[in-house]
Design a protein that fits this description.
Number of strands: 6
Strand order of the largest sheet: 4-2-1-5
Helix content: 40-55%
Largest sheet: 4 strands, parallel
Radius of gyration: 23 Å
Length: 197
């Protein structure tokens, strides 16, 4: 758990993020991607809806239940894209996929972990500002993912909790700084200086 990299998906470009994550998984890293519904895809929503609709048509005629499976949730769409960049039918690929987890929102154990970004996949760095883009959560909603409002509600609760924690942390830091400034160390200063402090 300690060596897990938690990536905040917000503001990242879909394919660029997927390719970087796939490479790192094959190199043995454990990666968790949170806020997958905030990942961005270059191209307008209309263009990406057409592309996804074409993908939905790809199925087995005799028994569609055998696949290919078309995921609706943003986390699974991103997971499947990363799987496509990994030799997932080999044991090496299966081990790599076992080291990956994707989530909508930021669920319980990861809300208290340090989150990182991938600079080579950030939209503001990699996509020209006049180009169209769309949000993966909006695309999923168009194709039947209905948990968007629930994720938004849980995210609002998490943000309120985080702000309260941060305000408390700042207040404690201010109290500590005030106490340190007011402390009279004249009695112990010679002893401390003799010890090299």
């Amino acid at each position: 758990m300690a060596d897990t990299i938690v990536i905040d998906g917000k503001g990242h470009l879909f394919g660029r993020l997927a390719s970087v994550v796939a490479k790192e998984l094959l190199n043995g890293k454990r990666i968790v991607i949170v806020r997958c519904e905030e990942v961005l895809i270059s191209g307008s929503l209309t263009r990406n809806k057409v592309k996804y609709a074409q993908f939905l048509q790809k199925r087995q005629n005799t028994n569609p239940g055998r696949g290919p499976f078309h995921f609706k949730s943003p986390a699974r769409i991103l997971w499947r894209s990363i799987r496509g960049m990994i030799p997932h039918k080999t044991s090496r690929g299966q081990l790599a996929m076992a080291r990956l987890a994707t989530f909508e929102g930021i669920p319980e154990p990861y809300d208290k972990k340090k989150r990182v970004v991938v600079p080579e996949a950030i939209k503001v760095i990699r996509l020209r500002s006049d180009r169209n883009f769309c949000v993966l959560g909006n695309l999923s909603r168009e194709f039947g993912w209905n948990y968007g409002p629930l994720v938004e509600k849980l995210e609002a609760q998490r943000k309120a909790k985080e702000q309260a924690y941060y305000a408390e942390k700042k207040a404690k830091a201010a109290l500590k700084a005030k106490a340190e400034a007011a402390a009279d160390l004249s009695a112990v200063a010679p002893v401390l200086s003799a010890l090299g402090h």
